[in-house]
Amino acid sequence: NKRVKVKELLASEATGQEVIVMGWVRGFRNNQFIAVNDGSTNNNIQVVVELGMLDEETLKRITQSASIKATGTLIPSQGKGQKVEVKASAIEILGDCDPEKYPLQLKNRPSLEYLREIAHLRFRTNTFGAVFRVRHALAFAIHKFYNEKGFVYMHTPVVTASDAEGAGEMFRVTTLPFDNPPRNEDGTINFKEDFFGRSTNLTVSGQLEGELAAMAFSEIYTFGPTFRAENSNTARHLAEFWMIEPEMAFYDIEDNMNLAEEFIKYLIRYVMENNREDLEFLAQRLAEEEKQLPQDKRSEMGLIEKLEFVMNNSFERITYTEAIDILLNSPAYKKKKFQYEVKWGIDMQSEHERYLVEKHFKKPVIVTGYPKDIKSFYMRLNDDGKTVAAMDILAPGIGEIVGGSQREERLDKLTERMKEMNVPADEMWWYLDTRRFGSVPHAGFGLGFERMVLFVTGMTNIRDVIPFPRTPKNAEF
Ligand code: 4AD
Ligand code: MG
């Protein structure tokens, strides 16, 4: 099979060599010029058929999204905007596509909302072609980054009995029969008889298992799907999302911040160097989308400019207490522009986070030293007894993109926090064992993969950066 991918063809020297192209028809002009795409790039290869070469019947079957195999020779193109084209010697229709029934009409510029309803076909658009190639590149760069640093990739379980975040946002996993589940005396379902005789759920985070591995390999990372049963219908939340969670022994909160910043910059640099064409396409798309917005809602920088800026400037680092002071002294606060209350102790809302990054600092911000009461039990208590060694990274246009902390490595302090927060210490004996047997200072964080893809692609809805979004009422395929 001499099939050559379109991207490779477009970069080839045309010397009349024989080639085979297979792909989907993106356009057909003058019964002569077929634009073929195979997903390797947004650019199409032009396949030229000589007039009279194909019969009427075949010509009619060359419709948008029909799949074809074209055999021919690669020659320099006369047309503008393309270096090469395929002069066809044979065209074979592999699969017809009835234009009357096909729901994706590219000519009419389908909206992103409409494309979400036909998510099975949206891969065939330029926007989603670019988004998912960039998503792929980011996934690859994640492994490359940690591999170069000698981190071990750890697979953590999807089904687990623990609630890593202690936030109770879990999807239950059960083997109980739906129609006749075992019941307690009061008639309620006896979930104790779930999986292996105990209640299980889909993981909300691989962190706790990651910590176990870091206590032997020193530096590990996880990269897998995580699940949150939060019923939030926002442009930033999914019920199923992917998370990268590095966990490092012998790191303190400072080392943790440094790694997270280096990691984010590395990912941006990787796609800037390897996915330039797709990023430029997405930058153009974003610019056009923003033209519809009122002036004050538009970004100050284009996508490429923004990525360059983030890559080349240090993130701002402030404490939670400083963040609250900035908010309290902001014109937005004085003009009562915030919907939610601002005072020390609040869990900052996205309007607050976005004020800090978009209006005040105009760059990514790392916030440390959060009040202990709004953070998870495993975060290390600071000497003030009020705050923990937490760090969140806030990104322009996104809000929280990373959440992490130095972990509480002192057994007595940890068990005390667990008691205060009603985390069942007896069920977590395995986690506490790491603090009993050779405990060390350690730290880690979680980067929300889709939020990173949003940031890099300039897309604005998280449903548009994961192939099959799981959101409330959205699980058909
Ligand atoms: O802040 P979170 O909940 O932190 C953890 O899960 C820790 N165990 C991480 C760690 O220290 N190892 O989540 C981490 C990140 C968030 O900053 C956000 O980017 C993303 O995961 N995230 C979501 N992304 C999409 N949809 C959701 N529902 C998300 N919830 C969190
Ligand atoms: Mg968080």
UniProtKB/TrEMBL annotation:
GO terms for biological process: asparaginyl-tRNA aminoacylation. Its EC number is 6.1.1.22. PROSITE patterns: AA_TRNA_LIGASE_II. Keywords: Aminoacyl-tRNA synthetase, ATP-binding, Cytoplasm, Ligase, Nucleotide-binding, Protein biosynthesis. One of its GO terms (cellular component) is cytoplasm. GO terms for molecular function: asparagine-tRNA ligase activity; ATP binding; nucleic acid binding. Residues 132-467 form the Aminoacyl-transfer RNA synthetases class-II family profile domain. This is Asparagine--tRNA ligase. It comes from Niastella populi. The gene is asnS.
